[in-house]
Amino acid sequence: MAALAEQAANLSLNDKAPVKAGKPKKGGDAAPAPQMERPEFIEHRNRIFDELFEKQQQEIAQKPREPITVTLPDGSTREGTSWETTPMDIANGISKSLAKRLVIAKVNNVLWDTLRPLEGSATLELLDFENEEAKMVYWHSSAHVLGEACELHFGCHLCNGPPIENGFYYDVAVPEQFGRGIAQVDFAPLEALANK
Question: I want to staple 140 with a disulfide (CB 3.0 to 4.6 A). Which of 15, 102, 147, 163 is the partner?
Fold first, then answer.
């Protein structure tokens, strides 16, 4: 397992993945894989997410709004409103550049999404990519983006895709009709999907 993680960590978008099949183009690379039909499970998953998100928003709308105090690591405080004020609001109030760099927050020492409302008075840390925990959160989220791009492009099933010490990866099971492994020539379409 450690050897696999090390190999994955040493890969980059410039590394050429082996091509098992496919029609070669000039230069020896296989042609990019055509985008497969959108798997049905994606629509099902999106519907479930939308339903749960709407339910959560309705529950939050019913919560009482009360004044809260947010204490930052330097001891300074900011005022806010429970169930409305988010870590991103606090970051924007401090500095636009901080808000742009913000990856994740810690509320009372618990990792907290930047757009999730604060529930009451709390301590707050605003973490950017220089923080190791924030880096792992960023790579974890990036692995999910890569995974969905692979699902959309290849019609594949996701296997294992964790963040690792120096990045992230996803093992995928591509459909047999794809006819080959994923090659470097497939990276551009995946990147385009990930950037949507």
Answer: 163
